[in-house]
TrEMBL record:
<dbReference type="InterPro" id="IPR011257">
    <property type="entry name" value="DNA_glycosylase"/>
</dbReference>
<protein>
    <submittedName>
        <fullName>DNA-3-methyladenine glycosylase I</fullName>
    </submittedName>
</protein>
<dbReference type="InterPro" id="IPR005019">
    <property type="entry name" value="Adenine_glyco"/>
</dbReference>
<dbReference type="Pfam" id="PF03352">
    <property type="entry name" value="Adenine_glyco"/>
</dbReference>
<dbReference type="InterPro" id="IPR052891">
    <property type="entry name" value="DNA-3mA_glycosylase"/>
</dbReference>
Length: 185
């Protein structure tokens, strides 16, 4: 599947052809490298929350996620206990899924523990492919290996498809289709 040209005359990945939050995300964020532990923890957490839902839903709720998860500060989230989970289960501005909320806390604790190695950012980047995966893939050998490596270190909700989406989102490889104006940027 090739690019779609929007009403503005710009060729984009097919899912970002029309105006709105998805196109804005595509044009300004998707496939761009991020840096820092909180940026990686945010993307990992939001990809987990997106599982089974539309990315548009997550983007619309992202400001609330950032607020209730303290800017994705790993130490702050790692300190959450059962009352915090219950508070978040009552928060209508986010996705209220107990398993995903508990996974966010688990992953923050695992992120803190991963500091004893090189940290979350270095760990994720160590799984960058030598060559970009083929277009339209949903997993890769690298996303499978990243998933296994994170699970081994105590992370949850980090399956191979979710990790592939993370790798796309944070620019571990260029996810844009050939012909998209963002390809190679």
């Amino acid at each position: 599947m090739g690019p779609v040209t929007g009403e503005d005359g710009v060729a984009r990945c097919p899912w970002a052809g029309g105006p709105g939050v998805m196109r804005d995300y595509h044009d300004t964020e998707w496939g761009n490298r991020v840096s820092g532990e909180s940026a990686y923890l945010e993307r990992l957490t939001l990809e987990a929350f997106q599982s089974g839902l539309s990315w548009s839903t997550i983007l619309h709720k992202r400001p609330a996620f950032r607020e209730v998860f303290h800017g994705f500060d790993a130490d702050a989230i790692a300190a959450f206990g059962p009352p915090d989970v219950e508070r978040l289960m009552q928060e209508p501005r986010i996705v209220r899924n107990r398993l995903k909320i508990e996974a966010a806390v688990t992953n923050a604790r695992a992120t803190v523990a991963l500091r004893e190695e090189d940290g979350l950012e270095a760990f994720v980047l160590s799984f960058a492919p030598d060559r970009p995966p083929t277009e339209h893939a949903t997993t890769s050998a690298e996303s499978v290996a990243l998933s296994k490596g994170l699970k081994k270190r105590g992370f949850a909700f980090v399956g191979p498809t979710t990790m592939y989406a993370l790798m796309e989102a944070i620019g571990v490889f260029d996810p844009h289709v050939v012909g998209c104006f963002r390809r190679g940027s």
